[in-house]
Design brief:
By secondary structure, the chain is of the alpha/beta class. It has helices spanning 11-17, 31-46, 61-66, 93-104, 108-118, and strands at residues 4-5, 20-26, 51-56, 74-79, 82-88. Pfam families: Thioredoxin.
Amino acid sequence: MATIELTDANFETHVKEDDILLVDFWASWCGPCKQFAPTYEAASEANPDITFGSINTEEQQQLAAAAGIQSIPTLMAFREGVLVFAQPGALPAPALDEVIQAVRGLDMDEVRQQVEAQG
């Protein structure tokens, strides 16, 4: 599955409706973002059951601000509408694969209980 562009118009829908959503926050002038892009794209093709989205922080400044993005690239993962991972920096392919497997392996009942306990 190819990476999809996320915007103010479709971000919330994807967070709510996609079982697993990975989001890459990037900008065209960002060297590490350009280095990470092929790794992210390859992972999207290798994991067709996951939605891979990207947010251009220059074009979607309000969305980036709402997400608290302070450095790019930043990778976020949502599972069943819950933010379960957020980390700045370009991940090498093996680390990205580890994140994907960890997100897949989460017990979401346990995650929701932890979120409620923090709330």
